[in-house]
Design brief:
Strand 7 (208-212), helix 8 and strand 8 (238-242) form a beta-alpha-beta unit. This protein folds into three domains: 13-108; 116-195, no CATH class; 198-326, Diaminopimelate Epimerase, Chain A, domain 1 (Roll), CATH 3.10.310.30. It is globular and about 60 Å long. The protein has helices at 22-34, 74-82, 116-125, 130-146, 159-166, 172-178, 181-192, 217-233, 264-269, 291-301, 323-326, and strands at residues 13-19, 40-44, 61-66, 86-91, 104-108, 203-204, 208-212, 238-242, 249-255, 274-276, 280-287. Helix 1 (22-34) crosses helix 5 (159-166) and helix 4 packs across helix 8. Helices cover 35% and strands 18% of the residues. The protein has eleven helices and eleven strands. By secondary structure, the protein is of the alpha/beta class.
Length: 329
């Protein structure tokens, strides 16, 4: 066991906050394999990352955050530090609100994301067969897929249960041989993916497609993976996928094409609850009244004129809306 990071003394209560997708689950597994800790686990679906609200207040805590956006949780982490707590941050999302504090350790690298070639090379060097590499890749994708819903009760397997399952095994081969979780996730994925075959784009251009999904449980689960799947099928186009999360709000998942120079994260940050990375982003709880604006602007991102809609020096709560974009609809 590595002693690079000290184990918390029993007098302070420890919490691990982790995203309920593959990144969060495996980050927690690897950390606690290297450094055991009697911590309480708090997790979330992929969109609902406001985990600091679930922590006790007015008490000093030791908090480790894994794959939870620093920018989206600045208020909560300042509160932890304000109560005398300590905080360690492991993440790869935007860090524009990062600050220094003597009890805050940050390990944030926004460039370490979507590295399939490096993953294959590392797996080969460690002796993984092609079949084993394929199984590990599929399991990671299934974990990500499982994280897309409104609440954890809608998931095929709760992220805490996934962590407990994988944490029983030090060798991934033992997990595949002895755990039923892989089969359960795979069956749920196959059943769900029979449902969207009849979907057609709500709006379509040569460079971008927009899908507005019906109000059903499977559409919320498929929203993120559907956007990724569409992008992998046609990397020359950008895609926006919008499932409803209530009667009058939508979640937005946007993936820009490989050729696009537009910053998806900057566009999404212009909306309350928005964020992401250079080529992938999302917006939480978007009012239905904003759909036309978002759809039109999403299309225009792929036309390389995103700077007309969200100049970084004037990013307000919503991007400016241009009549030329409205005319698309």
């Amino acid at each position: 066991m590595s002693d690079a990071m000290s184990v918390e003394p029993p007098s302070i209560q420890a919490y691990d906050l982790f995203n309920g997708d593959a990144d969060g689950i495996y980050a927690l597994h690897q950390l606690r394999m290297a450094q055991a800790c009697d911590s309480q686990w708090l997790t979330c679906v992929k969109r609902n990352i406001a985990l600091y609200q679930k922590l006790p207040t007015n008490v000093a805590l030791s908090v480790t955050a894994l794959d939870i956006s620093f920018a989206r949780n600045e208020v909560g982490l300042r509160q932890v530090l304000g109560f005398g707590g300590r905080l360690r941050y492991f993440d790869h999302h935007a860090e524009e609100k990062r600050f220094a504090h003597p009890r805050l350790e940050c390990y944030i690298d926004c460039t370490r994301d979507n590295l399939p070639a490096q993953a294959v090379r590392l797996a080969r060097n460690s002796g993984c067969s092609a079949g084993n590499r394929s199984a590990r890749d599929q399991l990671g994708r299934l974990r990500n897929y499982n994280a897309y819903r409104v609440t954890t009760t809608e998931l095929h397997i709760h992220p805490v249960d996934q962590c407990r399952s994988v944490h029983r095994f030090e060798d991934p081969q033992d997990f595949f041989a002895r755990s039923s979780e892989f089969g359960h996730l795979r069956e749920g994925f196959a059943e769900d993916h029979q449902l969207p075959n009849a979907l057609a784009p709500f709006a379509q251009t040569v460079l971008a497609d927009v899908y507005v999904l019906p109000d059903t449980g499977w559409t919320r689960l498929l929203s993120g993976t559907l956007a990724n799947q569409l992008t992998s099928t046609d990397s020359s186009k950008s895609f926006a996928v919008l499932p409803p999360c209530s009667s009058d709000t939508y979640v937005v998942s946007i993936r820009t094409s490989a050729a696009s120079r537009a910053r998806t994260d900057l566009f999404c940050h212009c909306y309350a609850g928005g964020g992401g990375r250079h080529a992938a982003g999302g917006i939480d709880h978007t009012p239905a009244s904003d759909l036309g604006r978002i759809i039109a602007t999403s299309i225009n991102i792929s036309r390389e004129i995103a700077h007309e809609y969200f100049p970084t020096q004037h990013c307000a709560t919503t991007p400016a809306f241009n009549d030329s974009a409205a005319s698309l609809w």
